[in-house]
Amino acid sequence: MNDHPTPLDRAAIPAILERLYGDAAGHTFHDVPPEPEEPPEYEGLADLLAVVRQLKQAVRGLPRDLEHVYGELTPASVHNVIDRLPGGLGAGDVFIDLGSGIGKVCVQVFLATAVGACRGIELSAPRHRQAEAARQRLQADYPAIFAAGRRLDFVQGDILAADIGDATMVFLCARLFGDDLMAGIVRKMATGCPRLRHVLSTREFPFPGLAVSDTLTVYSAYAPRGESLWIYSA
């Protein structure tokens, strides 16, 4: 008899995310102000100075290290990714999100698939606390989906130092990840993830031993018009 929990009806998942995250379920920026409006035409010095003030106001508060900026995928995009995964996600799989923010992608994958474990790694302590609070609420409200030893975990720390050796699938919302960080992630996966089957990345990058098996368009707070996500498979 298979007592592994069945995935939830997708129609119910947005309401669960809203219950867990409140206003943060709207997939807005979590460190970055809105993009500046198109600068107006100017004719003189006073107009030019006004434009400069407008642009300075628009970018005030941007973090110096853009690798720490994130914008999680919309629920529809996450479902689209799940549908395109070769072989799907089953009880033997471990899904790891490197740079998991407040955890919405991990939570949605945990709810919408039969995956055995989901784990999010996030450097920001405030985001991690929000992810962990959501996990605790989810487990309290829906204990049945944690049956059969299923795990949903969030770890606060450096993704290059985190233990991901059990991963079968790694997700990278990596649009703003620098080359050095990406190269470090590749080295980590190449030497320490013997069960890895797929890497999902919003940045095209060479992953040794993996080849692109699919490309699709996804949407997020910082890519409302869409961006590419590459699926790399062994």
Low-confidence parts lasting 5 or more residues at pLDDT below 50? 27-36, 61-69
So what's the overall shape? Answer: globular
- CATH fold name of the largest domain: Rossmann fold
CATH architecture label of the largest domain: 3-Layer(aba) Sandwich
How does the SSE layout of this entry go?
Blueprint: H1 13-21, H2 45-59, H3 75-84, E1 94-98, H4 104-112, E2 117-122, H5 125-141, E3 151-156, E4 169-172, H6 179-192, E5 198-201, E6 211-220, E7 223-233
Parallel strand pairs: 1-2, 1-4, 2-3, 4-5
Antiparallel strand pairs: 5-7, 6-7
Would you summarize the structure shown here?
This protein is an alpha/beta fold. It contains six helices and seven strands; from the N terminus they run αααβαβαββαβββ.
Task: Explain this structure.
By secondary structure, the protein is an alpha/beta fold. It has two domains: 10-25 and 69-233, Vaccinia Virus protein VP39 (Rossmann fold); 33-65. The chain is 32% helix and 20% strand. The protein contains six helices and seven strands; from the N terminus they run αααβαβαββαβββ. A seven-stranded mixed beta sheet has the order 3-2-1-4-5-7-6.
Features:
7 strands; single chain; 6 helices; Rossmann fold; alpha/beta; seven-stranded mixed sheet; globular; 234 residues; 2 domains
